[in-house]
Amino acid sequence: MTQKKKVQAEETPDVIAASNWNFMFKWLFIIGGVATGLVNALAINPEFTIPSFLIWVSVVIGVIVGIFYFNSDDFINVGLRFMIFSAAARSLPGETELIAYATAFFLGFAFYLGPIVLTMAVVYFVKKYILNK
Predict the structure, then answer these.
(1) Which contacts of 71-75 are long-range, i.e. CB under 8 A and separated by 24 or more positions?
(2) Does 91 score more than 80 pLDDT?
(3) CA distances from 62 to 28, 56, 76, 121 (A)
(4) Is residue 6 included in any domain, yes or no?
(5) Structural domain tally of the chain?
(6) Which secondary structure element, helix H or strand E, spans residue 117, and what is its range?
(7) What is the Cβ-side half-sphere exposure of residue 125, based on CA atoms within 13 angstroms?
(8) What are the tens digits of pLDDT across the range 39-55?
(9) 3-state secondary structure of 81
(10) Which residue range is the domain that position 64 belongs to?
(11) Is residue 7 part of a domain?
């Protein structure tokens, strides 16, 4: 007996565009987090100074990603990521230089997650209490 072929539904342009934006925001989240962590790790060196605009670029990217990439209903899980990165950074002993750089990287990533969590909290409460009436 021959099997029926499954007919695949063609993706509409809206679905394709949404998946492209989701792909772009995912990589923006990853690159922003790694870049913020690396810059913070390099800041251990006293000769390296962080330009102030890099901090604001990281905050702006975090706000954009918090609004457009993450679902505000997933607020608790992203907040837990923030707490886990912060706790991991504070729990590492800073006895060797490698661990000091790892601690600074984790703290930098936690600094990047902070604006994302705050943005998600605002979006969550606006959706729940203001737009739900």
Answers:
(1) 72/120, 72/123, 72/124, 72/127, 73/124, 74/120, 75/117, 75/120, 75/121, 75/124
(2) yes
(3) 9, 10, 17, 13
(4) no
(5) 1
(6) helix 97-125
(7) 5
(8) 888 887 777 777 778 88
(9) helix
(10) 16-130
(11) no
